[in-house]
Amino acid sequence: MTMSNQSKAGKMHRNPNKENTFLFLSDINSILVSGEDTNGEFCVVHCSVSENDGPPLHIHGNEDESFYLLDGELEMTLGDETFLVKSGEYVFAPRGIPHTFKAKSKKARFLVTAYPAGFDSFVKELGVPYEEGMETQIQPPTPELIQTLIQVSKKYNITYPGL
Fold it and tell me: Which residues contact 6 (CB under 8 A, 6 or more apart)?
């Protein structure tokens, strides 16, 4: 199915596919519902991360995020609390609260819903269209990549304490 499986009534049926999937830093992210679909109200992104992968501690100034873990385990830090998230569990990360995660299983798959949308545009801007096997070529981030991340993040009101 392609990303444009939407009826005039706004109903849709989507799956991760070549048209909506990006290598985003070290994650494979598929934009299932974009801000364009919801008039900017929210977006839903399917994320797949490998063991020990995850973003630096960061703060979203514009959107709240929710995480629903489909499979695997994540160690999540939300504010001053760190906890293990297991398959079938949900986490809400309000805007303005520092948070991060790290995959503790070989793979972890989860859904991120951001309210309002914006995270989907961030993924598109920083990511590259995903091709099977790209994740095996991931290298540690270069200083240039970190600088690009920080610069693009400013546009989306995302900051990184400690970077």
Answer: 12, 37
